[in-house]
């Protein structure tokens, strides 16, 4: 590739990336139906793995665990990475020693700096788990077309699985709260056919029980206390897809600014104060681990 071609390629990738981010922002406000110097913010260039020891490298995603019936299991899930905010979440959760799962978009992991972010998440298991959020985010947010063309949609999902090197077949449907676990489906009509196809192909579809909404692309809607009330209400009223197992959805880009990264830190810290709460990666959700 000559220098001119290389420059054009980099420009096209950058242009596409920012176009996709803008599109993602425009669709995020409906998920409930489905410049600060705060020290919480880290440099997005800081892509090292702090806890890369032998035990981390030998852990195998999907290994079964035992559940304690007196505990409340919480699964923090972050969508749409790699993007601005991904490494803030990485370092913040790592410092708090809290497990989380990152559902990433394949095409956003093409550029070298983005690949480093993807690698950092993948290599941090069992602290963090890399999961599949399709390759093109439903053909660049063409949801009706994507979900009505199940074969092409499955190919898109599988392309992300390969390109991101996702370690286990766990996915989330873009912009839709869909569950597909071993033949058990709960999803909008729009995604049902695709979820059945993915389920038949051995994928586990993960929805959510509580969502931290955003407005204006990056600004969290609920306060920390409101999020805590929603979490406790979901547990108290058995609103989870599976009792005592609560999946929380947020998006990496919500926490790229210091004040909002601080909100995430406070939210997690307050959840940790309840001795009933246990944080896990989504491969340990009932029905996903290999013994279920």
UniProtKB/TrEMBL annotation:
Which InterPro entries does the UniProt record give? Glyco_hydro/deAcase_b/a-brl, NODB_dom, Polysacc_deacetylase_ArnD
Q: Lineage of the native species?
A: Bacteria, Pseudomonadati, Bacteroidota, Chitinophagia, Chitinophagales
MF annotations from Gene Ontology = hydrolase activity, acting on carbon-nitrogen (but not peptide) bonds
Name any Gene Ontology BP term.
Answer: carbohydrate metabolic process
Organism of origin is Panacibacter ginsenosidivorans
The name this protein carries in UniProt is Polysaccharide deacetylase family protein
NodB homology domain location is: 68-174
Q: Which domain of life is it from?
A: Bacteria
